[in-house]
Amino acid sequence: MPVTLPAVSLALSGERFVAVYRLAGDPAEAQRKALDICLEQTVELPLALVPAGDIRDHIVGRVESLESAEAGYCRARISFAVETAGSELTQLLNVAFGNTSFKSGIRLERLDLPEGLLRAFPGPRFGREGLRSLLDAPRRPLLGAALKPMGLPPSGLAQLAYQFALGSIDLIKDDHGLANQPLAAYRERAQRCAEAVARANRQTGLNCLYAPNISAPADQVLDRALWARQVGAGALLITPGLTGFDVMRQVAADDRVALPIVSHPAFQGSFVAHPDQGISHYTLFGQFNRLAGADVSLVINYGGRFASTLQDCLAWAAGTAAPMGHLKSIFPAPAGSISLDRMPEMLRVYGNDALFLMVGDLYQQGPDLTENCRRWRRLVGRIAAAEA
Amino acid sequence: MPVTLPAVSLALSGERFVAVYRLAGDPAEAQRKALDICLEQTVELPLALVPAGDIRDHIVGRVESLESAEAGYCRARISFAVETAGSELTQLLNVAFGNTSFKSGIRLERLDLPEGLLRAFPGPRFGREGLRSLLDAPRRPLLGAALKPMGLPPSGLAQLAYQFALGSIDLIKDDHGLANQPLAAYRERAQRCAEAVARANRQTGLNCLYAPNISAPADQVLDRALWARQVGAGALLITPGLTGFDVMRQVAADDRVALPIVSHPAFQGSFVAHPDQGISHYTLFGQFNRLAGADVSLVINYGGRFASTLQDCLAWAAGTAAPMGHLKSIFPAPAGSISLDRMPEMLRVYGNDALFLMVGDLYQQGPDLTENCRRWRRLVGRIAAAEA
Questions:
Q1: Closest C-alpha among A375, A369, A382 to residue A165
Q2: Which residues of chain B are within 8 Å of residue A223 when distances are taken between CB atoms?
Q3: pTM above the 0.95 mark?
Q4: ipTM over 0.90
Q5: Which residues of A fall within a CB distance of 8 Å from B85?
Q6: Looking at CA atoms only, how far is residue A387 from chain B in angstroms?
């Protein structure tokens, strides 16, 4: 006879959110996995030990549907009381995939969140519309570049930033490996690059945005964001895989900062490395980024030096725009092996609502970086005109 | 003719750290992957575009050795200038595995960090020795339990905490799903459970530690840690997969908090889900946790409801104690399917330097939770005596 845990009566709203999982196995195996998720992600006890009453009836997850999917897989919709997540992003991620990340053959595919839960998350401050408005670019594709390589001093990076901006690039980000190393310390780098871009903007009449990398120790991220604002940077770059998603959310929610945020996916590749496990590109890089306030989600592009497939990238981009209550849609920003040659294909795949990031090929096109950028801009304009 | 990037001369210390990768493929394929890591993790440009001089010679990673390993794999030791990481944990993780996490067939196996880099990280405040000293338990295995299920109110959780502590459990943690939900709000829960454990300690003369879960929004983690300290909690639980490793480091380094930290691996399972990809248990849960100041690394145990293997768990435990300069060794805390029946096996596998976490079987052994805990303690004592 086991310990008797008290049955309790809970004041629950009745609102539930849904997590959709793809489960490897036949329907019997999938049924077992789905029931296991219901317990593991909430009470973490065998059902026999869960006290009767509201905990058993409403806190334990509930299999809303289970159906066969692609060969060898099933798809389960599992609902959880919104009270299991409270109003914290950290705990929402935990309920959706915490311990289940250690089980095999389970992939989190999508979240369907009711307004009662979404209300806790302001989401992207700018989103697609806000960024287009800042750039006075109502419809066209956006063009971006990155400052690299690591090792250049702030003056050298600022010189590159100036040339990119003069070449009509829309957004220039720090390479995500530029942190606060002695090679190009954050404050000086951010200030010099912001000034260089401002100088170019005065010449071009455009509003190129410079995004310094604020991925940093937890107690310094907000300081770096405020410094960026102070020196006139137009955007921010952050890597939630390194800082935690919630650190990005905190920056996005801070009215003193109020800058568009580019989310970099570094260190998160293992979540999407195996089709049987992890989290879908749609949810990890689309839905989670939007819950955490990103305005741009950098996409690890297919066809180049990474393992991404076209299908991965399409799911990634779809997650940036799928309906999520009041949460704004955000820009996918394909990066990695983007070149002038590939632009017709890139525009076909991603459409106009994308921010294309290029560096290597801009360095390679000829000796004048500014002219190379302008050539890219003209090419994209010609492709768009031909299709209109 | 490409853009000419300036050659620069850098003031480098000459110190380098080493990351060891297991690469899928034959030696030719592994060589290609290793050279790719050298560029991807630093300059992120093709070698032809990297400026001559110190960037090419010292910033680009360097393959120190490449040898065949298990069938189908090679092992590469790649060194990076300590200046690529600066003194920030976020950037160290980035250099070790940032973009490479999106490449296939690459697993980060180990970091070898020189003292010049380790100096930036105080590491565990207590470690094995410190925790043993707090518990006045110089040699024996430690026993732990968790407060669950989610849905119980603070009074019910405190009652469980009291019974566990009276039963001579060493460490009682919140279930990692207890955050700040209305079901059992953090401040009240932490206070009531800390008081309950203090009351039991007065009766037993022991020093059972209660670890409330401070995994929370980024701007609230430190507040929760300070509240825990204020209400007399003896330890803390945090989930770096949700908050980011560096948030844990920040808490560990704060002298106002100064409590032992239990690190929970939820949400990090995808990093270890596939043998060809991700990060080894040794490095992710051993080395990274120690760099980030954890004193206990919760181990997802084998032989139960998770995908872990015995080998995974041994690697996990090895990483908690492997030499890392001044960084203290920490306790592995096997959890998941620990039962009285399995204790002989568990003690053989993990030895005495482990903190065993059990809940389900303590609930199942009989109606009196305190007596069940005492039975566990006696059993472990008998096994130890028989082996002495």
A1: A369
A2: none
A3: yes
A4: yes
A5: 181
A6: 31
